Amino acid sequence: MLNFNYNIPTRVFFGEGKIEVLGKQIKKYGSRVLLTYGGGSIKKIGLYDKVISILKENNIPYFELSGIEPNPRVESVIEGVKICRENNIDFILAVGGGSTIDCSKVIGAAYYYDGNPWDLVIGKSKVENVLPIGTILTLSATGSEMDAGAVITNLETNQKYGIGHSGMFPKFSILDPTYTYTVSKYQTASGVADIISHTLEEYFSNVKGAYLQDRLAEGILKTCIKYGRIAIDEPTNYEARANLMWASSLAINGLIGYGKDSAWTVHPLEHELSAYYDITHGVGLAILTPHWMEHVLDQDNLWKFVEYGVNVWDIDRNLDDMEIAKKSIEKTSEFFKSLGIPMTLKEVGIGEEKLEIMAKALMEYAEGSVGNFKPLAYEDVLSIYKKSL
Amino acid sequence: MLNFNYNIPTRVFFGEGKIEVLGKQIKKYGSRVLLTYGGGSIKKIGLYDKVISILKENNIPYFELSGIEPNPRVESVIEGVKICRENNIDFILAVGGGSTIDCSKVIGAAYYYDGNPWDLVIGKSKVENVLPIGTILTLSATGSEMDAGAVITNLETNQKYGIGHSGMFPKFSILDPTYTYTVSKYQTASGVADIISHTLEEYFSNVKGAYLQDRLAEGILKTCIKYGRIAIDEPTNYEARANLMWASSLAINGLIGYGKDSAWTVHPLEHELSAYYDITHGVGLAILTPHWMEHVLDQDNLWKFVEYGVNVWDIDRNLDDMEIAKKSIEKTSEFFKSLGIPMTLKEVGIGEEKLEIMAKALMEYAEGSVGNFKPLAYEDVLSIYKKSL
């Protein structure tokens, strides 16, 4: 197990009706609120009205930034910063999924930066300070509600990059599983794929001694496998929605990564797809994951695939190791397919045309090598893209 | 899954050499330190000298309270409060195991209370405020390094009770597994039993929908099973010591209990043993646990024992449910025995004489019923004590 510093300061209020804490929690951190959200879904489920009534009851002035995109764009960040500055905002309340929360985090950071917010995303300038943020989650997927990271897209330059700072941890997050009852089958499936991918990015590591962390990761994976299909078939199954929601937070808040050294692989590969084609993030991850696994599997890392196959997929441990590994990859692919996820790039509108361009762009960003479980070079990335077609 | 509020604010610095953060961390919270510790073990391993040199290098004035007992007594709390008041202490640094940390937490709380600190322990008065606390852990067992609770003993009245307050979360804890290299085989085994018991107290619950939490709990149990014996046989095995240390924190910091409603059972039963006989806490837990399991197992809760047997002990799921359950209890008992723990009360010097007195004292404290997985009445408690003889 490697050394680590544990720090997860976000307070989580979990369960049906927990919005009751909203007014009191906001007042702990701020007095003038920027309310951020995406499309109209929070209005459809009555959440918008509820939030507004709480803000009004508590005499908290608020301003709105709506229409934040599924892959949130730097233009929304710029607009949010403008509203904050013009109205002396001191707290951001993000109501939505990971995109709204990510965008809000970068607004909070860019508020304290005079230049173009994109500088912060690409690392040209450093985040110094961040406005306090609270969230009300409506989609179980990115885990942004309990971590210190954000991903922003620049469609002009076809770039989608991550940014992180300890100030970006939400001060609080309200996780009410009933807010995810109306999430579509497709988005539910995509969210499950996202949670699984976050977990696998940490799980597939060459560090052998973080035994406890790997068992926790397997617990999250099993939760996704058990409840993914149930949530799709029975959208108002509280138990399924609750377990997936809590899994989304624990998959990426640090818990399963502490003591390991995982450099993520599939996420950067997918970010190129989203940056060039604006596809649904979780779907891109689901398509790429089995091909990435097949590509990297070798004698050195076979042990990890065997652990994965036996502990997560209940594959008979008496089979040959390579057979277990290959079966575990098949099971992964079959599971995503069973959720109704289109499992080829072609089905989501991506052809051969830009595969080389995307692979090159990724190599430039990654400075020649992606991930560290088995580092990928240009040819590896291109090969995975091609197999995913 | 039940509603819950997640709040684990303790920062953990984990790994060999992490004491390097000590000076900086103390200065974030205080300027005059009460250094607390137990017997001489921290001097033997050189940790005392290291701490003192860091305090001196950082020009931090410090005062000492040493000799804190394995089952920390209210007299030590009283003495600690006196030192704090006389010397304007504003930060407590606990160096040791759970006893030292628990005692320090209650000193921190009693500092702000004018009456007898025992009032706070028995709930006669409420904790209002707590001095900030930091810890350096030297024993993997109680998890006090990352939770908001403490247990204090009053040998005059033969009482050992728990007390909790959110202010009791340590601000930071330094977890360096090498500090546990010299822990004796007996104390190592006792610590493992303590971690397992904390986990089982949360795991054995009638709440069925907290699936994710139960998988996490199983991960902690598997970690104890894998590394318990290794740590005893190879005291300087870093991987074993590290996994047990992190397991001790995660078993009780809330993670596996959120969303459940477990009212602990075996701990209160053991507290009576410690209060009357001052035995090693973890040993008492190990002795009682299998007898408690046998006593409560019935058709209604059989499912939970089956889950435990199959997921934790790898018992063949094709066997008859009751057979799986009984085997899981046997496995639990055999495991404790394999760690070298004496598995009868007689072996630790407890005879029949006070069993009724202890059972009566417990019922009085528990107001007639202990635990909620299967609530225990007086006859149940006495029966478990007798079977444990």
UniProtKB/TrEMBL annotation, chains A, B:
Q: Kindly give the InterPro entries that the UniProt entry links to this protein.
A: ADH_Fe/GldA, ADH_Fe_C, ADH_Fe_CS, BDH-like
- Molecular function per GO: alcohol dehydrogenase (NADP+) activity; butanol dehydrogenase (NAD+) activity; metal ion binding; methylglyoxal reductase (NADPH) (acetol producing) activity
Q: What UniProt keywords are attached to this protein's entry?
A: Oxidoreductase
Taking every annotated instance into account, which residue ranges of this chain make up the domain Fe-containing alcohol dehydrogenase-like C-terminal?
A: 188-388
* Gene Ontology terms: cellular component: cytosol
| Alcohol dehydrogenase iron-type/glycerol dehydrogenase GldA domain boundaries | 9-177
The record's Gene3D superfamilies line, in alphabetical order, gives: 3.40.50.1970, Dehydroquinate synthase-like - alpha domain
What is the name of the protein in this document? Iron-containing alcohol dehydrogenase
